[in-house]
Specification:
The protein is mainly beta. It contains one helix and ten strands. The strands form two sheets. Strands 1, 2, 5, 8, 9 and 10 form a six-stranded mixed sheet that branches. The C terminus is likely disordered.
């Protein structure tokens, strides 16, 4: 079964992102499978996808509201969609490094194939 979660870091302010809305959609679907908020560590309190069978998905990061709340007058991005494919049996942690004018996405080293996302201690 596939498992997916994310972490968001604010490169502009040098902090973890608290309160950003992140949603997960099955590719081609309009209704989200899950919609969660990041916590003080920039992580989600729950996983976006637990025991999924794999397949094509879209993560959507709602960045505009976050940066407006940080006092940025005109952030470039409203939402950042990330389309990905999960294989059966993978546990992925996707990291978004974001500023008001750019971003970078990568798979976290905690991602593993064939096991669950480890609990943070």
């Amino acid at each position: 079964m596939a498992t997916l979660t994310t972490r968001v870091l604010d490169q502009y302010n040098g902090i973890a992102v608290k309160g950003m809305v992140v949603s997960l959609e099955a590719y081609g679907e309009e209704e989200p499978i899950a919609t969660l908020h990041t916590n003080v560590c920039g992580e989600l309190e729950d996983v976006l996808l637990q025991d999924g069978s794999g397949g094509h998905y879209r993560l959507v990061y709602h960045v505009r509201d976050y940066f407006l709340g940080q006092g940025v007058d005109c952030p470039l991005f409203d939402q950042i969609p990330v389309e990905l494919t999960l294989s059966r049996g993978t546990s992925e942690v996707i990291v978004l490094l974001v500023s008001p004018w750019g971003y970078n996405i990568h798979r976290d080293s905690r991602s593993r194939h064939g096991s669950r996302v480890p609990a943070r201690r």
